[in-house]
Design a protein that fits this description.
Elements: H1 2-20, H2 22-30, H3 37-55, H4 66-87, H5 96-116
Length: 118
């Protein structure tokens, strides 16, 4: 459950940071400025991350619960998306590679913990 708790905490924190300052986070992540509608969409994305993290915050459950599977899938998918943005779309911000590595690491950690049952 530690992997799930860590993953949920990261998304809660990221959501709060994006809500508070999308004009700071998005350029660091993607290397592009946000204004107008893009800032609004970034804030909505921040809210969605906050809700995802809160929805998946573990209670005293077992590995393999829907929140665990949701966060595992999310981490794997967001890692692939970030790699796609860097390699294919050529976006590049200071946090893009660290964010991709973090999500890959969390997905691997969650996969290992699921197999070991903790």
């Amino acid at each position: 459950m530690q992997a799930l708790r860590f993953s949920a905490a990261v998304e809660i924190g990221t959501g709060l940071v994006i809500l508070a300052g999308p004009g700071i986070v998005v350029p660091l992540l993607l290397g592009v400025e946000v204004t107008g509608t893009a800032e609004l969409l970034a804030r909505l994305f921040g809210f969605a991350l906050l809700c995802l993290g809160l929805a998946c915050w573990p209670e005293r459950g077992v590995v393999g619960t829907p929140p665990f599977r949701t966060m595992l899938l999310y981490n794997a998918a967001i890692a692939m998306l970030l790699i796609y943005l860097a390699v294919i779309e050529h976006y590049w911000g200071a946090l893009l590679v660290p964010a991709a590595v973090l999500h890959i690491a969390v997905a691997v950690w969650m996969s290992i913990s699921r197999r070991k049952g903790f």
